[in-house]
């Protein structure tokens, strides 16, 4: 019952820099998707929401500033952390990048170890379970290190899929996840599973959570998906 692998979208138009950075990210255990321009980046984000975007400022077709602006103005993507990379070292440029919504701004040429540290910091904020933090919503508590789930004073017995579903919901209480987004995050992007399978496992999770007489905390959002709370 492992924590779902963290997904990083790397947007960099310079092939050598893109591959070096992707290699180092994958060595850290992240799943990396690559884009060489802003338009490709937005297409990949629509296909599957990443946990983090590393974004070059100067790119053809669509600048990193515009990509960041679009990410941060859309309700389904605004909470995705963005680290912007730029050769522009003037303070006014950093301020402009951060004002657009970027969560961090790194000047090229950057130190890889420092950049990896910044990546870990942003991912801890976005996906706290990945760093072993206990998650809680109301009386539901999940400990990712021991894989124990309790509700009130009772320990819950969850299957691996139900555990990953609950973990996903607990990391973002209130956020509505579509069935496709849950498939990508819980089952993985490279595995084909019918979207109706999500409904089956949601029903099992609800049964387990309500087994001790508690209310059903999972909300069905008609035409959109599911949310916790």
Structure explained in plain terms:
With 229 residues, the chain is α/β, with parallel strands linked by helices. 40% of the residues lie in helices and 20% in strands. The strands form three sheets. A five-stranded parallel β-sheet has the order 2-1-3-4-5, sandwiched between helices. Strands 6-7-8-9 form a four-stranded antiparallel β-sheet, with helices on one face. Helix 4 links the parallel strand 4 (82-86) and strand 5. Helix 6 crosses helix 7. The mean pLDDT is 87.
Helix content: 40-55%
By CATH, the superfamily of the largest domain comes out as: Response regulator
Q: Kindly report the CATH topology of the largest domain.
A: Rossmann fold
Largest sheet descriptor: 5 strands, parallel
What is the topology?
Elements: E1 7-11, H1 15-27, E2 31-35, H2 38-47, E3 52-56, H3 64-73, E4 82-86, H4 91-99, E5 104-107, H5 112-126, E6 135-137, E7 140-143, E8 148-151, E9 154-156, H6 160-171, H7 179-187, H8 196-209, E10 218-221, E11 225-228
Parallel strand pairs: 1-2, 1-3, 3-4, 4-5
Antiparallel strand pairs: 6-7, 7-8, 8-9, 10-11
